[in-house]
Amino acid sequence: MTPASFLAFAGLSLFAAVSPGPAVLMSARTGLTEGFHTGAFLAAGIGAGAVVWASAAMFGLNLVFAAAPALLSALKLAGGAYLLWMGWHLWRDASVPLDTADTRPVPRSALSAFRLGLFTQLANPKPAVMFSAIFLGTVPPSTPLWVYGALLAVVFLNETIWNTLVARIFSLERTRLRYISLKTIIDRAFGGLLAVLGIKIAAS
Predict the structure, then answer these.
(1) What's the pTM value of the predicted model, to 2 decimals?
(2) How many structural domains compose the chain?
(3) Per-residue pLDDT reduced to its tens digit, 93-127
């Protein structure tokens, strides 16, 4: 694999990470409500989920989807239902005031945040198809295993660093104070967007 192909893969996977979707949305909200530390663990879970999909693409999951389209449809329906469930909970609890007695509400544990990030990323099977296209377009069949490992590391770093940055921006005190004043509107916007993305994933 040439350096140019490696850089092309890195650039395309970064573009995939930056593209708005459920993972970026969840990073923003976690940064707002639970702070940067929790958001960083969530971002690591998102990165791990991306590695799962990229690994699946590497080993030909796209061919499996082509041979058994019902499997892809089932994954889309399950992922869409999960995002709809999260969106409904955000919408339902939007009017519950945020406890401001402390500087932050009690955040979830690091493991819980990581798990939420992982499940949020795995709820969207489209990255498997996208990574398949990226691998086919930039990675030659004769690529050594250690290069594949390096490519998976790039996927993890792109997803984790980008979503950590999103969580950091939304964890800033100025952003949080603005969120507190508009909590109901913002939470319903987050919940509505997650629901829309869930429907889009299930229907496409």
Answers:
(1) 0.72
(2) 1
(3) 767 665 544 444 456 788 999 999 999 888 877 77
